[in-house]
Predict the 3D structure of the following.
Amino acid sequence: MDYIYGVIAVICIEVIATVGLAVFTGFTGLFSLGHAAFMAIGAYTAAILTYFYNVPFVLALIAGMIMSVLVSLILGFPTLRAKLRGDYFAIATLGFGEAIRVILENLPITQGARGLPGIEHYTTLPVAIVFAVIVVWMTRNFVLSKYGRNAIAVREDAVAAEMAGIDLFKVRVLSLAYSAALGGLAGGLFAHYLNFIQPAMFTSVLSTQLISAVVAGGIGSITGPVLAIALFIAVPEVLRVANMWRLVAYGLILVLIMIFRPSGIMGYHELSFASIRRIFVKEHAGKSPRREI
């Protein structure tokens, strides 16, 4: 059961990062291939503060989020001001992610490639679940707000959105900052759950997993990427006894989703209690016997 609880905790932590990336990619329309860097920044910031300076856990998480946002602004201002989009912006974020990893490997305070062992175990399963639920709720409100509607307009047609008076640069930077903040939060929780971090944990492989969950879950959806990242983590763990075949299963899941659900698991829809209730009501109505007249 401890192993199962551990898998659920990791799913909740990565849900936070995935939901943040869903706002930036799914609702704003910009692809990031270096999102693991924000998790690394949040993880190392929070871990260093609790490890070396005995800063309270919550304050360390907030500091990790702030640091991730500041770094995102350093990345966002030159790239988004230059109106980099599509492949160009994706390549820029890929280089940014690798640069952050190399920097962390060469800083004395991060202890290089050896990493930081013995981090306090502050992140428990209830903590991870509570943070994941709060983040999903906040993100839903963000998407339904004026800023979220502006982001969707920018994704659908940037030229039309700009002609309507929407500041493209402001919307994209705000979306990147929000996404980076959630990435930093996920990193801080991750560090205090595993009790050990090193730069090798935050490579392009993690970034690819996050962006794959957003695309497979459905562009323009929040609950879709949540279901996708849970699937991507749970299935390989279930098949861990099969050794290399678990990686084959991971790729097979992606292929099947792209074939049978090109728009993603949820597409542009959301999974809610009301929709679940409607499904059960329709199913019950379909099974109920018809009255003869």
